[in-house]
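In the previous chapter we treated chains in isolation. Here, by contrast, the input contains two separate entities that must be folded as one system, with a combined length of 226 residues.
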Amino acid sequence: KAGVTQTPRYLIKTRGQQVTLSCSPISGHRSVSWYQQTPGQGLQFLFEYFSETQRNKGNFPGRFSGRQFSNSRSEMNVSTLELGDSALYLCASSLEVAGAYNEQFFGPGTRLTVL
Amino acid sequence: DAKTTQPTSMDCAEGRAANLPCNHSTISGNEYVYWYRQIHSQGPQYIIHGLKNNETNEMASLIITEDRKSSTLILPHATLRDTAVYYCIVRGYSGANNLFFGTGTRLTVIP
């Protein structure tokens, strides 16, 4: 079974631009979560989508948004990029079995550099 | 979510057991202890989780103290491939998909 895939793997943008990152979860997984990882702040939760609805949201400004499609694929968008948005963006998917811990499977990440 | 405290870094000789401690003194009765690890430049990988009983799987063992205020992840025979940052996370089942990773312990396995 294929793992979580993220595209693109590397991206360079300039301040003020916007960017869209894509995540394809493991087949059958309905939950997709996004995380930002920086050297200063570590791994921080951005948001989670389940059945095309945002279920949880972290403490990030409104410039960070996302969506999930009917096939569970997800995209996140960052508008008006700032230098501090340079980070590794990780996507994770999980199966969602009620009453059980649903292990999160992480993709390799998209490394975004803002110049 | 309960806060966790882990040592910043640890070394372990290859082939020996690696014992990674985690303090979670404010853990509540319905919160689980999860361990993930992140090998350099890769996404985190789930290792194991537990509530109050000791748990073992093909990767590691998790020992939780009786008062549940601390736990230890044990890698029985560390290899160079186990060099990674190990995160101890405390969370209930509900909403467990928004994990708080903290700073973790950087484990270096030495040949």
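The mean pLDDT of chain B is 92. The CA atoms of residues 37 and 86 of chain B lie 4 Å apart. Compare these points with the single-chain example from earlier in the chapter.
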